[in-house]
Amino acid sequence: MSKNKPVWRFPAIILTAALMAPGLVNVSRANAFFADADSAVNNLGFGINTIVPEEEFEEPEPGQETCKNPKAVNTGSVPCYVRAKVFLSDSRIALDYEDYLNTGAWRKEDGWYYYNGILQPGETTPALFDRILLMEDIPEEVQEAQLNVVFASVQSEGFDDAAGAFASLAH
Length: 171
Hints:
The structure is a single chain. The protein has a four-stranded antiparallel beta sheet with strand order 6-7-4-9. It has a three-stranded antiparallel beta sheet with strand order 2-8-5, with no helix packed on it. It has a two-stranded antiparallel ribbon with strand order 1-3. It is 22% helix and 25% strand. The chain has two domains: 1-38; 51-170, Immunoglobulin-like. Strand 6 (106-109) and strand 7 form a beta hairpin. With 171 residues, the protein is α+β, with helices and mostly antiparallel strands. The radius of gyration is 36 Å and the shape is rod-shaped. The protein is built from two helices and nine strands; from the N terminus they run αβββββββββα.
């Protein structure tokens, strides 16, 4: 009588192992999913994008051409795209600079003047214009006015052109 019991236990153990095997495989897969790891080391270097305006300027005389030649100097460590915008502080003053624009090096788009090249570190753009003409008809109540040129730059790496580089600033 005791000899028959071990015979019945053996198939029960086999059956139990057969039923548990798929579960054990899934547990090992789940464990591998949760225990899997990977790492990477990324060394980042940062470039410095800095431009500085530079110009020769003489006090303008009404009705006469005056020297004013705004340029941008790349004092940073990365090549960049450059653009410029011209602002007159008082719209009652008639001032001409557009006749003196350097259209070979700069182009006008969307109210900005874009330098046609990529400005390398240490380089200076050609002057946006080389002189201005202050018209003679200045209202008496206007004592002082300013013509300001603002430069902006974006690192050129990663962009196909200046338009795409400056458009990225809006996002």
